[in-house]
Amino acid sequence: MVRSRRVIQAPAHGGRHCPSLVQRRACQAHHGCQPDSDVPLREESAMILPGSLSVSRHSNETVDIRKNLRLRNPDDPESNAHREYCVQFEVLKVSKACHTDSDYKPLREGGLVCVMCETAALRRDLNWRCGGHGVAGHSTRFFALLAPHCHGKWMRAKENLDRKGDCCSNPDFIFV
């Protein structure tokens, strides 16, 4: 790294001499993330909708709010139904705005919530998973789409992702 400066006014009448005008410093080597690193997963943020929209999406196509969002999976979503999964999170921190919206009441500090990754939210560029599903033992940020100021942090409660267990039968939220 190099930085330089210039003299605007030369020293006069016994003034001090200007220090070096050029400074150099060696850069620290950066080797980047290892291919199997979980750092990118920890830095993702989850975008969520209430789990109640999951049921309405299947029963009434016109109610699906995600229809207006960019579809990340261009393949037929029904052909990827076997890839759906659920994640259980322990809520670590929640903004006050989450407490004012009844759809986001399950978000209580210290509480457990279940979030489902449906086929419409699966992302091919993330190896067929939902963005923001986190890493066990590390906190991840979440943002609620229907309540703009509702956000916080949570931590994945289990290492394994749940395919069709209790969590998936009645999810609190769905990934977008």
UniProtKB/TrEMBL annotation:
Origin superkingdom: Eukaryota
Leader sequence segment: none
Domain SBSPON-like C-terminal: 79-162
InterPro entries found in the cross-reference section: SBSPO (IPR039942), SBSPON_C (IPR056801)
Pfam families assigned to the protein according to its UniProt record, in alphabetical order: SBSPON_C
Protein name (Swiss-Prot/TrEMBL): SBSPON-like C-terminal domain-containing protein
